[in-house]
Each structure stands twice: as structure tokens, then as C-alpha cells.
Amino acid sequence: MPALENLTKGDVIATRTIGINRADLIRYAGASKDFNPIHWSDATAELAELPGVIAHGMLSMGLAVDVVTEWTNDPTAIIDYQTRFSAMVPVDETTENFDPARPFENPYPGAVLNVTAKIGAINQETHVVRVDLSVTNPSDDDARVLTRAQVQVQF
Amino acid sequence: MTVDLTGREYPDVGPYHVGSEDIRNFATAVKNMHPLHHDLEAARAAGHKDLVAPPTYLVTIAQRAEALMVNDPEAEVDFSRVVHADQRFTHHRAVVAGDELFAQATVTSAKELAGNRLLTTATEITNADRAPIATITSTLLIRG
Fold first, then answer.
1. Residue of A79, A37, A88 lying closest to A58 (CA atoms)
2. Which end is more exposed in chain B, N or C (fewer Cβ atoms within 10 Å of the end residue's Cβ)?
């Protein structure tokens, strides 16, 4: 864990760019048991009048928090994590230079998330630090994918 | 107008046996590669009896409890029109492989907004001793 006294509100503690492929959606569907076909079937997404196959909101939420886990070096320090889902993330099927033997290493991801984590608040009495996550989609005018994404970290 | 579901409590779902391969699979799917989720020796060295679940892992259990509402005929949820509106995890204690968990969902809010419906559930996750593990809040938006 970083030292509490060295933290200042507004500090950027981490940034990360995360690619998402169709294979990631399939893997998340299997791991989470959320098999809603809007996350893997183009025909279903079209019938549901969506902009395409979209990422699970919970996939974006789960991907984004990892910068905080890495920063604390202790996932159990994360005592609360909340967000609103404010923009869908369409994930294109991309096949250029794609090696079918390595479905998770697609060089041209079907979607990208830009994550920035900042210190939002420091409670000196409870030793809880709020980390605010910005999660945006550069393919969608930097639309905010998550809104009020807040992680409470117990120091 | 559909039935007002506010306050409706669904029965406990469980026991759900948290397995180490399930934790590894979930952690890999959300690219959470911290050793506590993958490496038993690292988890034990940090004082845990087994692999530690990632911060959003409990959604897999909470959604089983929430499914009772989604499948409740009186809720009239068309799954193809469901969008996830918000989600919150409040952790009371760490989840590790070997835990046996139960999940119980209650509808805390049911609203109509601009032709859409918003259904919010609070799901209490407890362990085999019925001690609190986490509270998980989720809102589904059903597009009108």
C-alpha cells in the first residue's frame, strides 16, 4: 500500500488503456455466467436496436478497477466500488492480422477503454481513500462509459 | 401499469461454493492479474487460506439471486430490453476459495422514467454461518 500521508486529493495514481475483443466478451460471459446474447450475437443486438454487440457493463467495471488493485497491491483493501453505466461500448469483430490460436491477443481490439484513476477524497479519521475512475471510449467521442465510478480503499 | 415490486423479497439462493478455478477464470476474464487471485502461495503468504476473489467477483452470485426477480412473471422483464444502469459492491469481508455463500435479493426501488422501467435490488451475501460478506446493489433499466 502507498503511504496515506503522501497522498493528495486530485493526484492521478494510474492510467491504463484496455483493449476489448469479441473473445473477451465470450470469456466474460462464461466466467460470469451472464449469457445475454446482446453481448455475443450480432443478430440479437440488431433486433434489440443496439449499436452492435456491446460489452457487458460488468466487464468494463471489472476491467477498470484493476488499476486500483495494482496501486494498493491488496485487492481486499477495496471495501466499496460503485458506478453508473452511462454509455454502451460496441465491440467490433476485428480479424486483421488476427491469429485464431491467440484469440485474446488481437492486435486491433474491437473497442478500447481509457482509464484514469485520481484521488477523490481522503478521510484522515477512517483512513479510507476514495479513488475516482474516469473510463472513456475514444471511438465514441470519449463518451464516459462509467459515471461516478468510485472505489473506497481502506488504508 | 405493472405490479409495484418495491419491498418484494426473494428467497435465499445457495449454497454457492466458491472454487479456486472459478476465481482464476473470473479474474482472467476481467484481466485482474494480481497474484492474490491466481497464486495460492502468494494468497497464503498474505494471510488468506486460499485465492482471493476480485472486487467484482460476487456479481456472479448476486445475479443468480437477482434472476429470481428477472424471472418473476409479475416483474414483466423482457430480457432482450434490459440494460444495466448501475452497480455497487460493499464488501464486509474478503471472499476466498472454499467459502460457501448465500445470496438474498430484495427489490428496493421500482420506478418508471421516460417510458423506461428502473428496478433496483439489494442482494445480501452471507456465508455458511450467515455472517454478512457483502451488500450488492444493482439497477436494471428495461427499455420501453
1. A88
2. N
Q: Answer whether A31's CB lies under 8 Å from B29's CB.
A: yes
Indicate yes or no: CB of B25 within 8 angstroms of CB of A65: no
Cα of A120 to nearest chain B Cα, Å: 17
Q: Do A83 and B87 touch (CB under 8 A)?
A: yes
User: Among A27, A59, A66, which would you mutate to test the B interface (most chain B Cβ atoms within 10 Å of its Cβ)?
Assistant: A66
- Bridge partners (DSSP) of residue B135 are B90, B124
> What does the alpha-carbon distance between residue A127 and residue A117 come to, in Å, rounded to a whole number?
18
Q: Give pTM, 2 decimals.
A: 0.96
Looking at CATH, the fold of the domain delimited by B13-18+56-142 is given as Thiol Ester Dehydrase; Chain A (3.10.129)
Please tell me which of the candidates B29, B84, B89 has its beta carbon nearest to residue A31: B29
Q: For residues B71 and B69, what is the distance between their CA atoms, to the nearest angstrom?
A: 5
- Rounded Cα distance between A139 and A142, Å, is 7
- Estimate to the nearest angstrom the gap between the alpha carbon of A86 and the chain centroid: 13
Provide the grid cell at B34: 494480481
Q: Which residues pair with A133 in a beta bridge?
A: A117, A149
Q: Provide ipTM, 2 decimals.
A: 0.96
Distances (CA, A) of A109 to A18, A21, A51, A104, B32: 9, 5, 17, 9, 18
Instruction: Give pLDDT tens digits for B80-117.
Output: 788 899 999 999 999 999 999 999 999 999 999 999 99
**Integer angstrom CA distances of residue A23 from A91, A93, A109:** 10, 9, 10
In sequence order, what are the residues at sequence separation of 6 or more whose Cβ sits closer than 8 angstroms to the Cβ of residue A141? none
Is the CATH code 3.10.129.10 the one for domain A7-93+108-154?
yes
**Domain locations in chain B?**
13-18+56-142
**Phi, psi (rounded to 5 degrees) for B14:** 145, -175
